[in-house]
Amino acid sequence: MLRRESADPRFWSDPDRARETGRRLAGHESLIASFDGLAGRLDDAEVLLGLADEGGADAAEAVAEASAELRAAEEILGELELSSLYFGEYDNHPAILGIHAGAGGVDAQDWAEMLLRMYQRYLSDRNYEWQLVQITPGEEAGIKSATLTVKGERAYGNLESERGVHRLVRISPFDAQNRRHTSFAGVDVAPEMGKEAQIEINDEDLRIDTYRSTGAGGQHVNTTDSAVRITHIPTGVVVQCQNERSQLQNRSRAMDILRSRLAELARRERQAALDAIRGEQGEAGWGRQIRSYVLQPFQLCKDVRTGLEIGDVQRVLDGGIQPLVESYLQWRRVSHERRSRAEPLPGEGA
């Protein structure tokens, strides 16, 4: 069906839909190629083992080649198993990642900047296309908030694991007495919905402010009040955009982000209502600590949802979060399977 759609002469009349269809088609074709490759490796290994059973001078070489084919098949199987973890409706969507300093004063703002650096390194290492659309520096150090948009394969599926409160324990570089401090930063992640976000926004529910873009300086920093901040009054959701060259462009981009965040908020509220009826407690919601990074008196990064512990915290802070991401995806699948086995809600079935 996707191939027929992509072959339609009118395919590129809607570029956004065409790109989305092309992305989905490429994903399906890649999955089919992996299954074909797995079957081919197993068939080759079977033939080689049959030759080895016949004996002869080449038996040892046939066994070695069969072992190589089986190792390759095992790698493909591992990749397919990982692919099976991306079952979420929006896992292949682009993502909007926001970071906000929490409790802890200047330490929390510094911690928020450390998280921003961690995610930028992670995204760059994995060849994601990302853009910093908003950043608000702290008065003394660090940042108060930042927003990234991320495009690439399974962008939202990988970054969903980061939503929640991140806790840092360390000797504060801002404490003259070198005391240990605990600080917090919040990370919010939403799938970028584009035209799929069927959210109706009333103009009277918005407060729109303009301000001068801030940043590290340089020729690309705007010198006019072109940055835009939009507050959705009923929900309190605030979005900002400052990277575009005009106020109109920043406003349009901010509205796209707002629609995506409101759609994600509505989706989470629906899921929370279902969990409440079933008597479940959501563990990864906003406002709950999901991960601790301890630098003093020992070194340990621990995800409280999955229980995964990593001793090399600096490696994590340098962008090495993929083990945490994959551990979360495994945990998410188990949680989904348990939820799927729950009794139907009142009014469902029959």
Secondary structure elements and pairings:
Layout: H1 2-7, H2 15-53, H3 59-83, E1 95-101, H4 105-125, E2 129-137, E3 143-151, H5 155-159, E4 164-171, E5 180-191, E6 206-211, E7 227-232, E8 237-241, H6 247-278, E9 289-294, E10 300-303, E11 309-310, H7 313-317, H8 322-340
Parallel strand pairs: 4-9
Antiparallel strand pairs: 1-3, 1-5, 2-3, 4-5, 6-7, 7-8, 9-10, 10-11
Helix pairs in contact: 2-3
Beta-strand residue percentage: 15-25%
Question: What pattern of helices and strands is seen along the backbone?
Answer: HHHEHEEHEEEEEHEEEHH
User: In terms of per-residue confidence, which ranges show pLDDT below 50 for 5 or more consecutive residues?
Assistant: 216-223, 278-287, 343-350
Secondary structure: number of strands: 11
Instruction: Tally the helices.
Output: 8
Broad shape: globular
Radius of gyration: 24 Å
Which structural class is indicated by helix and strand composition? alpha+beta
Helix fraction, binned, reads 40-55%
The span between the termini is 33 Å
